[in-house]
Automatic annotation (TrEMBL):
Keywords: Hydrolase, Purine metabolism. Belongs to the transthyretin family. 5-hydroxyisourate hydrolase subfamily. NCBIfam families: hdxy_isourate (TIGR02962). It catalyses: 5-hydroxyisourate + H2O = 5-hydroxy-2-oxo-4-ureido-2,5-dihydro-1H-imidazole-5-carboxylate + H(+). It is an enzyme of class 3 (hydrolase). This is 5-hydroxyisourate hydrolase. It comes from Streptomyces indiaensis.
Amino acid sequence: MSTSTTASVSTHILDTSVGRPAEGVAVHLSARAGREAAWQELGGSATDADGRCKDLPALPEGTTHVRLDFAVEPYLEESAKKQADAQQDAPANRDSGAFFPEVAITFAVEAGEHYHVPLLLNPFGYSVYRGS
């Protein structure tokens, strides 16, 4: 049984369209204490070469809900450009925009628990899950 009075959060992003970690994606963390409480922005980070955010801020005591905001559009635009440049026979009218420019994931937490929430990303979809 854990004696911590706060939950903790970590995340990483895998780009499933290329089978690699997504580097350089800005991630912002917000928290609230109760369903009706206002969100408190805690700060953010960016994913490293391994697609991980290793320095997200700690959650305040009493946190019950967490929101991770991923700014994926700049990453997806750059990724599409790199892929098009690498493919000489790529179609001239490639869609280089992000269908989902931002991904916001909100989840409930309990004190003393760790929540690892990976984002699996591609230009036209995403999925998340509670990892370990």
